[in-house]
Design the sequence.
């Protein structure tokens, strides 16, 4: 489980970093989205991995070792919403830039 | 529960602009005057509330106990619920934000709020994000408010559209989205090690972290710091700043003058609060701040000499200002904070006034006719043909004399020449640095010479541009509107006031600096005197 998660975060981050260094605006956006997925998984991992453990502490058995940490899940939800909104906004700016400059290069001209 | 309502005043700087922004969304773009009045009233109320909060903080006396007040949202106890904290520094930043907000809003009413849709809404949301970032007492909410202020700033930067703005906006948005991801990684690492994100709780837990967790926590703090420093524009993370700010509409750029100070604020808050008294955490990151800040000043100095437009000059003075603040924080390890905070206020106000003035001065040359297609169907595009005198049409005579005077005034503040507040601030920083230790190390000497050199470079660059723009006779200077001249005048008067009342202001700043070092008091007020306590007292 740990290995799969770590590999997932690593692959997402590596692909994302490679993509945001590319010259095309669309690649940059996809790169940022991939990194945001990696970061979301990473926050999730910060709450320790547990399989089949409920995230809420009941009154019957308040031993925290038996439960999953609910806070990172709440944080991840917020982070997902925010990065989703930012990606949408970035897409609009991308289209505006494409329309105004006629190219999808990040600097607005091909630069030979 | 008789005098209870003043306790709830702390939420007003966040709730008020949020509600007003929502309200302005319901109004049609054609009801511009109504929207403008809603925004204006809100910002006036904000200024009033933050002045009250500042008075509340100052009323506890300069010698007395910490003026920190925690507001527990929903009455949940501190490490579990969301907490807003007001203390000397937060109150100061709130007043600064609403002051700049008011002046830039009045300025924009003359023309710029018509240059694109939804200006007032974005403007109010920007203020909400700034206020929230200054008030919040935990790291994740700091992230959320950063995102609010960034999202609003994306909209404001693009306000008015045009190729240059969209290009700069694309870079600005990409860089800041990437920074937010770094912020999240830092927050996740800190949470993973300490199990909390409440700043007061962190201040207790961080000194106790040891063993294999330590490198994890330190890298978390370093990544978080990188995100803050990128906002503050530290070299080499600040390369995007002059270009983006130069592309923004002038009132927007003027408001952005405080945006880079949010990064400095976050560094101050987090590092001084979490720094801890002993062990590894004390003085963690000081060298980075010192050398990074010095590199930033050097970069800004070179950049300001190389700039050919006044917008760029202003952008690099933002960088110099950030660099001076960061280096002085790093060098003093929290000891010269009085001067640092004085400089923060003075340079922010000065740069804000400078951005507003630039537009007025350069207006003769620019052709402002940006013809854009409407994006929303109710968008009011007719206003883009300016020249018609409308409700703000009180035109002042002797335009060039006023502009020239204001320009000289501004340059004095930014470069730190006597007799204005910039000089007092730089003097206080240098005095503080010299008084640190009996033996002064070479980095401190280097920093002092860099601070003085950067002032010299600012004078050279601005004089060059000033001669070019003000002394060259133009046939017919454009008329100056009252709504544009008054905000600049008010900002410059504020700088003058800072210099005249330097004594009491400096005492306030010194006290603020002390309160930042007082972790015990902060933790006591936020964590220990919880809502349950308050409840018991009110019964």
Sequence:
């Amino acid at each position: 489980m740990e290995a799969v998660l770590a590999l997932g975060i690593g692959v997402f981050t590596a692909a994302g970093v490679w993509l945001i260094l590319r010259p095309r605006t669309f690649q940059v956006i996809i790169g940022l989205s991939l990194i945001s997925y990696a970061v979301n998984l990473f926050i999730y991992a910060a709450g320790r991995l547990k399989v089949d453990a409920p995230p809420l502490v009941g009154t019957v058995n308040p031993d925290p070792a038996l439960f999953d940490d609910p806070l990172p899940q709440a944080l991840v939800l917020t982070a997902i919403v925010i990065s989703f909104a930012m990606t949408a906004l970035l897409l609009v700016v991308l289209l505006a830039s494409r329309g105004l400059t006629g190219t999808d290069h990040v600097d607005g001209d091909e630069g030979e | 529960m008789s005098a209870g309502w003043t306790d709830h005043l702390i939420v007003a700087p966040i709730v008020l602009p949020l509600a007003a922004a929502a309200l302005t969304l319901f109004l049609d773009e054609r009801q511009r005057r109504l929207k403008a009045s809603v925004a204006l009233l809100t910002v006036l109320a904000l200024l009033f509330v933050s002045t009250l909060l500042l008075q509340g903080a100052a009323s506890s006396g300069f010698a007395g106990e910490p003026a920190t007040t925690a507001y527990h949202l929903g009455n949940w106890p501190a490490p579990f619920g969301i907490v807003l904290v007001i203390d000397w520094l937060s109150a100061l930043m709130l007043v600064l934000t609403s002051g700049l907000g008011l002046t830039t809003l009045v300025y924009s009413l003359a023309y710029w709020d018509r240059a694109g849709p939804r200006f007032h809404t974005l403007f109010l949301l920007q203020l909400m994000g700034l206020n929230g970032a200054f008030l919040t007492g935990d790291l994740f909410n700091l992230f959320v408010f950063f995102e609010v202020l960034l999202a609003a700033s994306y909209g404001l930067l693009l306000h008015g559209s045009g190729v240059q703005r969209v290009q700069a906006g694309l870079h600005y948005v990409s860089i800041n989205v990437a920074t937010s991801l770094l912020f999240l990684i830092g927050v996740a690492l800190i949470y993973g090690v300490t199990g909390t994100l409440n700043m007061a709780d962190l201040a207790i837990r961080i000194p106790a972290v040891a063993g294999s967790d330590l490198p994890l926590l330190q890298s978390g703090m370093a990544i978080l710091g990188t995100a803050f420093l990128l906002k503050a524009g530290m070299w080499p993370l600040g390369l995007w700043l002059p270009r983006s700010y130069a592309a923004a509409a002038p009132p927007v750029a003027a408001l952005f003058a405080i945006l880079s100070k949010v990064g400095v604020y976050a560094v101050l808050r987090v590092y001084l609060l979490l720094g801890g008294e002993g062990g590894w955490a004390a003085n963690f990151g000081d060298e980075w701040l010192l050398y990074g800040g010095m590199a930033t000043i050097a970069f800004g100095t070179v950049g300001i000499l190389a700039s050919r437009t006044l917008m760029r000059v202003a952008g690099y003075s933002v960088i110099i200002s950030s660099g001076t603040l960061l280096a002085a924080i790093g060098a003093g390890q929290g000891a010269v904070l009085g001067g640092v905070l004085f400089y923060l206020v003075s340079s922010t106000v000065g740069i804000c006034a400078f951005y507003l003035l630039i537009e007025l001065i350069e207006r003769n040359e620019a052709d402002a006719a940006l013809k854009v297609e409407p994006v929303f169907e109710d968008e009011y595009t007719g206003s883009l043909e300016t020249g018609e005198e409308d409700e703000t049409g009180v035109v002042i005579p002797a335009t060039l004399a006023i502009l020239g005077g204001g320009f000289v005034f501004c340059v004095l503040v930014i470069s730190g020449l006597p007799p204005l507040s910039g000089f007092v601030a730089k003097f206080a920083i240098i005095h503080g640095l010299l008084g640190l230790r009996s033996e002064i190390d070479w980095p401190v000497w280097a920093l002092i010479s860099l601070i003085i050199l950067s002032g010299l470079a600012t004078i050279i660059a601005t004089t060059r541009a000033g001669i070019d723009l003000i002394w060259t006779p133009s046939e017919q200077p454009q008329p100056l509107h009252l709504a544009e001249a008054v905000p600049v005048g008010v900002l410059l008067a504020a700088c003058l006031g800072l210099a005249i009342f330097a004594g009491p202001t400096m005492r306030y700043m010194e006290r603020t600096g002390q309160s930042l070092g007082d972790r015990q008091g902060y933790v006591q007020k936020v964590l220990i005197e919880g809502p349950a306590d308050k409840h018991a007292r009110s019964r």
